[in-house]
Amino acid sequence: MQSNKTKPRLSVFATFKTKGQELTGEAIRQRGIIAHLAIETIPTMRTRTSISHKLAEKNGTMWQNLYSGIFRDLDEILLPLGIVEEAGRLPLKRGPKALQENGVPYYQLTESGLLVAASLEEMKNEQAKIMTEFYKKNSNSKDKEFEKVILTLLDAAPSFVSLLLRKYVEAFGLGKIDRLIPFDTDNMKNVVDESIRIQKEFLEGFSKLTNSDKETVMNFFKKID
User: Residue 97 pLDDT > 70, yes or no?
Assistant: First the structure.
């Protein structure tokens, strides 16, 4: 008998249909969890409760108001999708007996989670660091040419890499691709849209210009920037 349970969907780019580009509450929570785990290194600060406290502090609310949503985002979405994984358990001296025996779980981002973190606007200052960590963890990647291009563009055109990552993660959230790993040329082909094609056309055209014409074009963009 087939299960009627709907496959969980990543919602970091989900917006209200009637409110333009305003992110949903679920999107804000998931982004907060992922961003927190991307930069926090202390295990005690990576439990559900600690994450709730941190996000509540940022949002000016009580942590208890966020806890149930964060619990659900982790257990029903981010863990099943392989975005987050349990990194270990912390001993507990007080509280429910079951927690004292099993400990309190704390979390970390997987390789897929690092890609999601690098795609978020609020992590743009950490993007190069996150992608470097991603490729260290993903050292068995067979598409070394694609890896070299991404790392080169991170230095030369970080906003373009942000666009690629966003389109890639959005496609995963919408179910257009089944998984984020491997992050390679073949999977990227499935998410290329008009905005990326336009930038590709510009790059190809610009590379064919004479040095004089290149300078003229660059001066034009400086004037309108």
Answer: no
Q: Cα–Cα distance between 39 and 99 in angstroms, integer?
A: 26
Global pTM? 0.88
Angle, CA of 25, 10 and 146, to the nearest 5° = 130
27 Cβ contact list (under 8 Å, min separation 6): 11, 12, 13, 14, 15
Task: Classify 179 as helix, strand or coil.
Answer: coil
Q: Please list, in sequence order, all residues whose beta carbon lies within 8 angstroms of the beta carbon of residue 126, skipping any fewer than 6 positions away.
A: 38, 39, 117, 118
Domain ranges of the chain: 1-109
Q: Distance between CA atoms of 33 and 40, rounded to whole angstroms?
A: 10
CATH code given to domain 1-109? 1.10.10
Average pLDDT, the chain: 90
Which letter does DSSP use for residue 76 in this model?
A: I
